[in-house]
């Protein structure tokens, strides 16, 4: 063991796995998939809904201290292959609820894994649901329109409530319906205060951000003080007309080398509030005993049952079930995909030039890598017109593996949704089938990104192409709409992606279209020429 930058560890490379194994050794009910960095119950109760979460390491006891968890490296999201394995490990007929904090990497990788699971197992597509938690009041509503509010310690309350409901026998839909400052990576908060004021001055400021409301009636809350031992300033809640019905204090979600604390308020539903669970339901879920290492609430936990440690097997590739669905013109289907790939490769220098000004310069090469990967799949006969579902899934996998990053995840989620959408076809896919599938795929993509046109992103031409198809099969006209939308990004200020950090006036002056949008335009024009 060595002391590295004031941390005790064996080696940095094995730190995450060592931590998971240590947790399992202390809690015999747990098991570890070391290859995929997953901690889970060794013998789960298949009659109950499963809860799975995860994210970057370095926030212990989150996330493995509460529910089944897929761990990334320190402050980095796990990849979608790891998450898919996690879903498989907890899979059961009652369903699985995925809960993630609202960070782009977590949302895209966990979301992509969910969509791949649904595409590969259409008979169980509705058995996995996805919830994103964003509880950071340091991100204002206007700032959060695209990226949303960050997920902080409030996520732990969501774990607890969902877990208690699952343990009590609630259905997946019932749990899903109920669950609807400073970041945990040392990002900037809503403002800086220097020198640091005493708690008697700081707590009122924090509570003001959390509770500012014009509601004249008293509100009931659950108060969680994360990583702070003393709660002597709780009377600040009374000043705001609040009554804290439950108070938690301790280390629930931490961060390496970050001295500080966060305050989380869970606003309980008011009596008679429409379409909301009762206050008593939420409190009962929080009060329920939980035999997990991370939850600090009741000292009367049952003794753990001894279960033999059995490492999980490696993830196995799966193919979608059902009879193959063919393209109406199998040769034309493959030819169109080849044209689109070749057009992207040819457009790489132009897209790269755009992205050097509007982004970080890698968009053209990223799209080229994806196109080359798809052409390789065509040469291997993994993409054919005789099985369009498997072919579209293959394209989704190329996007994930060859492109990577945010754009690769977005493309992969879209194509995974497209594969799911076209599975409802019978025998041969018609233009109407493709139109419905594209509409489904776009709606599905919007689950994982807040970007909406006009946003100066690839969503602009994609939406312009798909939206008319909800009531028409006029693909040529839809392509023209997409091309026009890509052109219009020249005059738009960026709201998301790397371009959001580039000086807006410069982009408008030089009339630089969004590189990602231009890539979508290039694909569609070649595909339907």
TrEMBL record:
Task: Output the Gene Ontology cellular-component terms.
Answer: cytosol
- Keywords of this protein's UniProt record, alphabetized? ATP-binding, Glycerol metabolism, Kinase, Nucleotide-binding, Transferase
> Where is each DhaK domain found?
11-295
Q: Which reaction does it catalyse?
A: dihydroxyacetone + ATP = dihydroxyacetone phosphate + ADP + H(+); D-glyceraldehyde + ATP = D-glyceraldehyde 3-phosphate + ADP + H(+)
Name the domain of life.
Eukaryota
Which pathway is this protein engaged in?
Polyol metabolism; glycerol fermentation; glycerone phosphate from glycerol (oxidative route): step 2/2
Record's protein name: Dak1 domain-containing protein
The record lists the organism as: Schizophyllum amplum
């Amino acid at each position: 063991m060595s002391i590295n930058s004031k941390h005790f560890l064996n080696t940095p490379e094995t730190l995450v796995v060592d931590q998971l194994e240590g947790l399992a050794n202390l809690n015999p009910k747990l098991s570890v998939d070391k290859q995929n960095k997953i901690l889970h119950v060794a013998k789960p109760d298949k009659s109950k809904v499963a809860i799975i979460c995860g994210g970057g390491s370095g926030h212990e006891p989150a996330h493995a201290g509460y529910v089944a968890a897929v761990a990334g490296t320190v402050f980095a999201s796990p990849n979608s292959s790891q998450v898919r394995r996690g879903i498989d490990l907890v899979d059961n007929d009652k369903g699985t609820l995925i809960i993630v904090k609202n960070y782009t990497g977590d949302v895209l990788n966990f979301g992509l894994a969910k969509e791949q699971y649904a595409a590969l197992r259409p008979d169980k597509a509705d058995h996995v649901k996805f919830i994103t938690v964003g509880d950071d009041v340091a991100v204002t509503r206007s700032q959060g329109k695209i990226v949303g509010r960050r997920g902080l310690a409030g996520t732990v309350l969501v774990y607890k409530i969902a877990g208690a409901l699952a343990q009590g026998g609630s259905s997946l839909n019932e749990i899903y319906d109920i669950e609807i400052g400073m970041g945990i990576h040392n990002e900037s908060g809503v403002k800086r205060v220097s020198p640091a004021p005493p708690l008697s001055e700081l707590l009122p400021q924090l509570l003001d951000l959390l509770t500012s409301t014009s509601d004249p009636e008293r509100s009931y809350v659950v108060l969680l003080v994360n990583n702070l031992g003393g709660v002597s300033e709780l009377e600040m809640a009374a000043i705001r007309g609040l009554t804290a019905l439950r108070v938690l204090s301790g280390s629930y979600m931490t961060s390496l080398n970050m001295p500080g604390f966060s305050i989380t308020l869970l606003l309980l539903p008011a009596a008679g509030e429409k379409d909301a669970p009762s206050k008593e339901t939420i409190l009962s879920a929080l009060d329920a005993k939980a035999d997990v290492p991370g939850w600090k609430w009741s000292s009367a936990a049952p003794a753990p049952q001894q279960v033999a440690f059995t490492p999980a097997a490696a993830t196995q590739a799966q193919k979608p079930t059902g009879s193959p669905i063919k393209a109406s013109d199998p040769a034309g289907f493959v030819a169109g995909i080849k044209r689109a790939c070749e057009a992207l490769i040819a457009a790489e220098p132009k897209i790269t030039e755009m992205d050097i000004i509007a982004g970080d310069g890698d968009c053209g090469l990223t799209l080229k890598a994806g196109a080359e990967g798809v052409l390789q799949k065509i040469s291997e006969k993994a993409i054919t017109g005789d099985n369009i579902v498997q072919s579209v899934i293959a394209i989704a996998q190329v996007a994930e593996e060859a492109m990577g990053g945010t754009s690769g995840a977005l493309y992969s989620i879209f194509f995974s949704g497209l594969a799911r959408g076209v599975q409802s076809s019978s025998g041969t896919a018609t233009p109407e089938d493709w139109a419905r599938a594209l509409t489904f795929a776009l709606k599905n993509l919007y689950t994982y990104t807040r970007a909406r046109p006009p946003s100066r992103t690839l969503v602009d031409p994609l939406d312009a192409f798909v939206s008319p198809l909800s009531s028409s099969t006029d693909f040529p006209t839809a392509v023209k709409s997409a091309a026009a939308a890509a052109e219009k990004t020249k005059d738009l200020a960026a709201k998301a992606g790397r371009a959001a950090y580039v000086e807006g006036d410069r982009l408008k002056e030089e009339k630089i279209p969004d590189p990602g949008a231009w890539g979508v335009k290039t694909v569609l024009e070649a595909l339907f020429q």
